[in-house]
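User: For a reading group we're discussing how well predicted structures match intuition. Take Anti-sigma factor. Before you show the prediction, I'll give you the sequence so everyone sees exactly what went in.
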Amino acid sequence: MAPSEKLKSHTEKDSSPALKRAIAVTRWKRILKALTVALLIVPIGYMLTFAYYAFGTKSTTLMDTASKVLYLTEPNTSLEEMEFDMDFSLFSMNLSFDQYKQVGSEHYPVRHYNLHFVLDDLVEKEMASNLDRNPPRYPGEDNQWLVHPGQVPKVDSGQDWLMLKGLPEETVAEAYFSLNDLYSITELRKAFPGVDVLWAAIYTGIEDEMLSADGDPVSPIGYPVQPDRTYWSPFRDSMSHEETFLQLLKEIQPYEGLAMEVSSHKNLALAERIDYIETNGFKTYGVVVTGPKREIEALERSDLIRSMKLGEVKLWNWTK
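Assistant: Thanks. Here is the predicted 3D structure of Anti-sigma factor, as C-alpha cells, for the group to look at:
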C-alpha cells in the first residue's frame, strides 16, 4: 500500500468516531431547542390568553353580554354572581352559570349554561334544563307564550286554566298572561294585587306580527318588574327599571350577534326596537306573575287578561 493511502485510511479511522459524536451532539442540540421552543409556547400562550381575557376586559364583556341578554329575553329569570365559573385554556374560555326562576316567594335553579369561547367567538353552547314546563326553545311568531293583542294566541289557554284549577290549594304557580291591550306596569300591579308581577314584555312596534322590518321572526323582550337586590343583576338599585332596560338594549347592541347566540332568540332587531321605545315610551302586552294558586285562578275573570300559559308549579312557600 502506498504511504498516501495508508495515511488516508488511518485518518478516516481516527476521524469517524469524532464525526459521529459531532453529528449526534448537533442533532440533540436541535431536539433540545425544538423542545425548549415547544415548552415555551404553551406557557406563553396561556399568558397571552390570560392577558387577552383579563387585562383586555374581554371576559367581562362576554360575561356581561351573556347575563344581560338573558335578563331581557328569558322571562322571570335571574343570575347569581357567585354562580359564575370561569376557566381558561389555550386561547379559549369556558363560562358556566346557573339560571333561577321565582315561583311563589322562592328562587329555584332551573337551567345550567356552559359557554365555550375561542377568543371572543362563542363556539359551543350547552344548556341543561330542569324545568317541568319548558317555554319554546326558539320562540317565534307561531309559538309565543306571551302574545300581542293583534295576534291570535297559539296556546290552549282553556286547557291551562283547567290544569291550574286541578292543582292543590297548597301550591304556588308561575303564569304567563297575554293582555287584551297595551298597559303601563303601574296599572297592572294595581290590577293584580294578590300576586307578584315579575316580568313584563315591552311593546317595541313590531310585536303585532312578531316580524322585524326585514321580515325576520322576533321574540318578546322585556325586563324584571320587582326590585332586585342581587349583586350581579343589572337592575340592582335601579331607580327606573324602564330606563335601565333601554340602557341595557343600547349596551348589548354592539354585541348583538353574540347576544343572539347566547339567548334562544334568533333575531333581536335592537336598532328598530330602541328607536321605537325612545319615541313612544314603555307599554306592556304581556306579563309573568307568580303567587298562590287561588289568587292566580281568580284572575281568570279579569277583563285585562286575554290568555294564560301555566309555567312552573311548587309546593306552598308564600310568605306574604
